[in-house]
Structure formats: C-alpha cells, structure tokens
Design goal:
The structure is a homotrimer. Chain A is of the alpha+beta class. Chain A is 19% helix and 29% strand. In chain A, strands 2, 3, 4, 5, 6, 7, 8, 9, 10, 11, 12 and 13 form a twelve-stranded antiparallel sheet that branches. In chain A, helix 3 runs antiparallel to helix 6. The interface between A and B is large, with 61 and 51 residues.
Chain lengths: 367, 367, 367
C-alpha cells in the first residue's frame, strides 16, 4: 500500500500554548450574498443591518454587517485551530462589536490562548481563548473570549502550521462597544421609527415571552455552517455523528442557535435597537438538532441612558420544542438563571441557550 | 413573578380601520444575494431578470428585480400589519409592476384598508387591502389588492404603532403596467432570442401542460419566507402548527407556491417574455406542505398586439403531487375555471394555485 | 378539448447533428449571491476564490469565480439542449479554466456535437459534446468535453430552436490552463500563507484519506441545481422520479457530487493551490441521493514544476456513506482505479465519483 496521510485539525489539550496567537487560515470576502443567506434564516428586525438608507442616515457608508454574522464568522474561523476536536463549547464572554464591517470587506480571525487547564479527571480540560475578527483595514469587527472543553493529549495528525507568531489580540477592555458613526451628538433627521418598542418602554424585571418559534431545517443549518467556514463535522457529517455525537446525529452549530434565539426576540425588543453593545455570560446548556423548534424569552436586567439614547440589558434564553410561555409557566424566573450554577435536578432540559445581551436602543423621547 | 409581556402582531377584524394606511415596519435593501436565493428555488426563463447584458440592451441600467420577488416582498412585509392573524389568503387582484427595481434598492411597503366586512357568522370577516412596494426614490415596484379572511375581535397584545398617518396608496388604475425602458420605439439590436416560443406562437384556447414539476424542500421554503420577512408562524413554526395549522404541520407560504407555478411554466411560455403586465383573479384553493411536488399548466386567454410586441394573457394553474397532464386528463378545461365559483363536488382537491397572468412577449416577426 | 401542447427539452439520439453547435438559452449574470450560495454548500479552502484581497495580490481585479462554479454553470446550461433526456452522464474530459470570471459577468454557454454513436443494442447511444462557458467579453471561463448516454429516437415534443448556427467551440488544446494573472514572474509580496500543505509536500504515490464527510441536504441540492439552471427533473421532481429514476427518488445532480468531493479534499491538499489546471477522466460510477454522506480521498499521481510553483496531479475519489479510510482499508489502491475498466465483481458500489485533478500549487520554497 501507499504512504497514507490522514490529517486532522483542531487541537488537543497539550497542543495549546498559553500566550500563543493562532492565525486562522480562512480569508474570506464577505459579500452581499452572505448577508442574504444569513437573512434567509434569521428574521431580524434591527433596521440598521437591513437597510442601506437607514444606515446612511446614521452616518454609516452602507448597512453594516450584522453583529451575529461577524460573531459567527469569528467563532467558525477559529474551529480549525481551536475547537474542531472539542467536546463542547462552554461559554461566550464579553463579546464586543467595535467597528462596522461592510459587504465587500475581507475578513480574517486570530485567537490567543489565555488558559489551558486540565480537569482533575485527567482526560480533558478547559481552554480559554480570546478571538478577534478584523477586516483588511485592521478594523476589529468582533472580539470575544470563549471557553471550550477539550480532550487531553496531542493531535499528531495535525499538519504543522505554515507560520507562527500571529499578532497578539487586543485586551477586550480596550475595545469600544459602539462604532464611531453611532457616537451621536444628535438624532439624525429622517422618517419616524417603524417598529413599536423604544428604550423608554423597557423596565427592569419585565419578562418578554416571544410568541413565535422557528423550526430549523436540515439544509439551512449545514449551509450556514459551511458558509461561516465552521469545520466541525458534528454539524454536517452524519456518519461521524453516529459514533461521535452525543445526539447520535448531526447537531446544529451553537452559533446558529444563538442567532435563532436573538432574532426571534427581535420584533419585540430590537426594532429600535441601533447596535449590540455586547453579549456576555453565554452558554448552550443543551443541544439542538435539525427539526427542533426554537423559542426565545428575554428578561430586562437594566435600563439606563447611553448618550442620546438608552442602554438596555436583557437575559436572553432559548428553549426547544416548547413555547417560551409554556417554559416560563413551568419554571418561572428560574428560566433566566444560569444553568451551570444549578443543582442537577433544577436544570431545565429544554433550555438550549442563555446569554446576557446589551443593546443600544433609540428613545422615543429623543425625537 | 415578573411583569410578563406577550406581544402579537397582525390584526383582528375590528383592528382594521377602513381608509387608514399602515406603513409596514420592514425596511430592506434588496441585494444581489436576495436575487440569488430567489433564483435558487425558482428556475425562471425570463432573460431580462437574469442577465444584466440582456436588460441593458433594452434600456435598463441593470437586470431589474423579478416581479415575483417584488410581489413576495410586498405581500410578506404586509403580514406584520395585515395577515399575521389571518385564517387564509383569499385573493390576489390587479397586481402591477410599474417601475423597475434593481439590486441595491431599499424597499418599504404600505397598505391601505379598502374594506373590512364581517361575515354573517360573526366570527370572522373579509379584509380587502391595497399594498404598494416602493424603493427609496418612491418608484412603485409592485402594487396590488388582496383579500384575506380574518378572525373577529381586537388584538389586545399588539403594541401600539409608533406612528400613524401613512401616505395613502395610489389607485391601481393610475399605475402603468410597463416600465419606462420597455415603452419601445424599436427592438434593440443584439443577438437573436435564445428560447423557442414567441408572441406569434400563442393562440387563444391553447393549453400548455408543463412537463416538469418541482418538489419543495423544507429548508428552502422557510429560508425564502424569512428572507421576504413574512412573519406568519404557519410557515416556519412546527409547534404552532400542531394546534393552529389546518394541515397540522408547516404550510408553504402561498407567495412561494405562486412562484413555483409561474416559473415551472416559464421555459414553455416566458422565454421571450419581457415583462409581467399583471396578475389578476388569483387564489390558493388548497394548501401545500414541504415535500409536495408542484406542476403547472397554462391556458391562453387572449393574444393581442402591444406596441412593437405582443400581449398574451394566460390562466395559470398549479397542482400538487400529480402531473398537469394527469390533472388535465381528469378534469379537462375545468382545470382552468375558478375554484371558488364551483360547486363543492366539482372542486379539484389537488389544485393549489390559479391566477390570470398577462405578459409582454416578443414577436418573432419584430426582428 | 383545446389544442394541447406538451413541450419537452433535451434531445434524443437522432436529434444530434455531428458538427452542429447549440447555443444554450440561459443567459445569466453571475452575482455575488450565487457565489455565496455556492460557498454555503462547498467548504473550499482555496483562498484565491474566497478573498478579494488575496486575489488582488496575485493580479486579479477581484476574487475570480470558482472553477467548479463555472463548470457547473456550463454543464447545467447544456442540459436543456444536450442531456435533459439522457439516461446517464458518462464522462468528463479535459476540463479547462482558461480565463478568470468575476461576479458581475454575464455568462452563456454553447456545445458542439463531436460524435453521436448508436450502441449495438439499437435502443440508445453515446453522445460526445464539447461545451464552453463564456462571459460577455468572450472570455472562455470553462471548457470541456463530456459524454452522455442517450435514448434512441427523435424528440418530437421539442420546440424548434429560435435560431441555429451557433459559433463553433474552440479546440480544447488551444485553450490555456492558467489565466493571465497567474503567469507569474515573481511571487507577490504579502502575508505568509495560511494553510499547511505546499507543492513541496506532495510526493507521487501518497494517498490522502480526507477525514471529514458532508451529508447532503434535500433543499440545498435542489437549490444549487436550480441556481445553475440544470433543468433535468431527475434532481428536483419526486413524481417524475417515482417512475423514471433508477433510484425511484430524486438523485443529486452529479456536478454537485463533484463539488462535494473536491471541496472535502481541499483543506488537506488545496489550501495553497492557486488554480485548477484541469480535470480529466472523470465519472460518476454510482448515484447519490439526499441524506447520503460523501467522503473523499486523493492519490498523488505526479508532482512537477510549473513556472514559479508546482503542478500536482491527483486522482480524486468520492464515496458515499462510508469514510474514505474504511473504503481504502477494504479496497486499497484499487479505490483509485477507473470503475469502467473493472470487471463487474471488482466494482466498488459505494464509489460515487472519480476524476484526475491537476492543480497549480504554491511552493513553500518560493517565498
């Protein structure tokens, strides 16, 4: 037989060098087509990301790329180097969207290893990385930290990287949460807002049970996974999944579950939002498969002024195959508590996503 | 427990104010990507909407947006205000495409309530609206009337609109059926036509049984529904459908069934069509679900001159899970008769769409 | 009853005139959206087709259209005239990509009949055509020969072509394999390569068993088929397939199986490839249906210098529902032998694709 080569990607626990930065190999021009495929699964109400005319009134040169499109590209690009061998994605931390990206931008991403800590069991550990997505002008479009659960060992089948010495990633605290055009001195002239709810309408403690769910199609979740360059076979290789998936079948990539939850909430809470100031303390307590239906609920954590407008923080939750109203009826406000901190018998098995989301939202009174 | 908010959208019968115009909240730049996702489900033969080079020969600055893309955007944008609580879509009336839209246009839509008439049963009624889709230059890309069957009552859970007093919609009769570039004094020079059939080839009474069908995928119909911003959960929320769908499952959005029927006919009858002069008297007699296969048939109602070229009116019909040849063999010309006017035992249960379509079609002899 | 017209397309064996060139009717502007829908199914690692910034460093004005996108358009456009009545696609021969196409190009295709030979059984025959895809500037984006198995007879239901006398297609040997920007005198300055494997790393006889598979979604394969304008109902009409498909169901269009196999190999072998110099001796030994999972394997046939960089020829194979490692364990190097030349009992039933692929690949040492 011939010389046989079976390459694998991602890393095992001992492959991670703390302090090192990995340049992820994907280099992709984000075209208008990617925007459309994104919009075709995520019915989002935020006008600044949908309408060039709206965005230009606020000083953008075009409609900026949707924050969750940028987040998904950053996360997916990192899979090749960080999580293609991961057991699970554990946490999203301090996600920021400092600069506007536009269709036509060419993006790349890199990740710095902040920590790689073996678990006491010895067979796995937690890797903590910081990932940034930049365009060809070095504008940071998205930056965050995340944690993943990784098997112990070294991945011998991984080919050596073609170069090392990636530029370090910036501290997240140094990155602004609002892009330059939105540091507003005055609300621009223009037609009145089109959706119903404003910063003035939110009050701490309110619970929004978003009425409508979204069933996830088999093809669409694989298409988005590929389009974002997420190379984990758990999401699109049924044969791999028979032996290697906790669900014994393809599992929807978590960044998409995030996208479904956030956009299902959007007509109720984001129709007058102008930007995502950040996401934090996010996790996927349970998995989702094609055919599952996602519902979302939001609880207002804080409302305050932010320049001309308001800053509203929500705890956003996604559940599967049960309406958010039914889930809330059963679990009450515990629906919004972090699953990881709960006793085993208090965990909510239909809960598939949770995160703290902070938005920059127009005030009705600012007009 | 906290203050709980469960918003709903659409309107019930008593929410409609005759004479009032609702500005629909969606404001969307139609990019080249949306054109591609549209083309990926609808194999259309009309060259003017596919080829920039072809369109430019006829005086357009780019390939114009496909009429059925515009119709679907207008109809879908109106769901949030008009039909998200509807029991059924009843009729398409006098659909026109006065102006060319192009990729890059930012579109919005508004609807004027023409009538809201309770049925004698008291539990529902018929709402008749006129909807227009315009771009940011106030060019009307599509306008039509439609009727929907709506439950009686008021929708208390609908948040108050942020503003009222939408600009009235124009009378349909005031809107031209042909866009300015196509008011031709001479057929432009250029390569010969590429498809087979011309205005000269059609004769009143001919029946075209289009050979090929199209099976509808689960993901693709949800993607198109979201991309068009159609927010009715009947089309993408399987949990909602278990209790609320007449089919007990997700139902394909009617505008897509329209699209499949029209484009399945296109290689036979529209390869030399230059524009859709209008659609009228359209309905969806039966529902369609993912996995169904649609076939189409066309009957020529009228052929006449229109400027340099011809105007051909067809009755277009869509059937499901049976070829149009088999349906015609069984039902004969009754296949093309309006279902609503038939006695119950004469209705054709596999018929899923019917409409009168009028096209502007090149003459072979004009060259 | 009325005059009934049932048109069919494609041709039967006696309809092919040797020496004649058919202008296929599709005329399509390839937008950025089509690029995205293509990328959403095919996770390809070749940077020149993904990144405008990368492509511009190599002298292209934008990222060029992916070779397999061009091949799929050429092949699909030809179905209307060549293979819509075909029993099977038999062979891809001498596929070349002479010029770069870009998003915004308007493409058409034409095919010259090289041979139409009845089989001894009398009921069918082999048609051999040469097909070229050109843009509006007459740049040839893709050219190849192919063979198809066609039923005997004449297709009376085919409407007469609107014109004949298509411009002859050029001899393939006259067409360059490398587009002008890549006839390099020097490797351009720029950041270091991002993927691992270079021309210097390949050795004749190496076997690459690509680890990861791809399950094919029902919607996505129909969407790509329509987007490419492939009009064969075998791929999207379930009712037709019940009686007319060898699989009794929809069969994935071969050009897509080709795409899945080539892109599944790409992270291992094409991350530093700059162009496809050609494909040859390709076939689809077995069919694929929605839900099948494709795996790929590559064997290095030849490595040599090509200007500044290297030219690497692979035998590329696709298998279904079994990993390439398992297939290779069972069949050894016979996995890479041509199926057509094997005795019946030696044929590999899970093999769905095979082709010889030659790539222009950066040398590590060229930097």
């Amino acid at each position: 037989m011939s010389t046989v080569i079976r390459s694998k990607y991602g890393r095992l626990l001992s492959d991670f060098e703390v302090g090192k930065t990995y340049e992820h190999p994907w280099e992709v021009t984000v075209g208008d087509g990617m925007v459309a495929v994104f919009q075709a699964s995520f019915l989002d109400a935020m006008p600044v990301f949908a309408s060039r005319a709206f965005a230009q009134r606020y000083g953008f040169r075009d409609r900026p790329l949707h924050p969750l499109l940028c987040l998904n590209l950053a996360l997916s690009f990192s899979v090749h180097d960080v999580s293609e061998q991961a057991i699970a994605h554990l946490a999203y931390l301090d996600v920021r969207f400092p600069g506007p990206g536009y269709a036509g931008d060419t993006v790349t991403a890199r990740s710095t290893v902040l920590e790689a800590k073996p678990a006491s069991t010895g067979d796995k550990g937690v890797v903590h990385v910081r990932t940034v997505l930049t365009n060809e002008h070095d504008t940071v479009l998205c930056a965050f930290e995340r944690k993943a659960l990784i098997r112990a060992g070294k991945l011998d089948a991984r080919p050596a990287d073609p170069w090392s010495g990636g530029k370090p990633t910036p501290d997240l605290a140094s990155l602004p949460r609002l892009p330059p055009p939105l540091r507003l001195d005055a609300e621009p002239a223009g037609p009145p807002p089109r959706f119903a709810r404003f910063a003035d309408d939110f009050e701490t403690g309110q619970v929004y049970l978003h009425e409508i769910g979204r069933t996830i199609g088999e093809s669409e979740h694989m298409q988005l996974t590929d389009l974002f360059r997420n190379s984990h076979p758990l999401h699109f290789d049924e044969i791999y999944c028979k032996d290697n998936s906790f669900a014994k079948q393809r599992v929807v990539y978590g960044g998409l579950v995030f996208g479904f939850a956030a956009t299902l909430a959007s007509r109720d809470v984001a129709g007058n939002a102008l930007w995502d100031l950040g996401y934090d303390q996010g996790a996927h307590p349970n998995g989702v498969v094609g055919g599952d239906t996602i519902y979302a609920a939001s609880k207002v954590l804080e409302v305050k002024d932010h320049g001309l407008h308001g800053q509203v923080a929500f705890r956003l939750v996604g559940v599967k195959n049960v309406t958010s109203a039914a889930a809330y009826e059963q679990h009450g406000d515990a629906l919004f508590d972090e699953e990881l901190k709960k006793d085993k018998d208090k965990k909510i098995k239909e809960k598939v996503f949770e995160i703290t989301r902070t938005m920059y939202v127009r005030k009705r009174s600012a007009r």
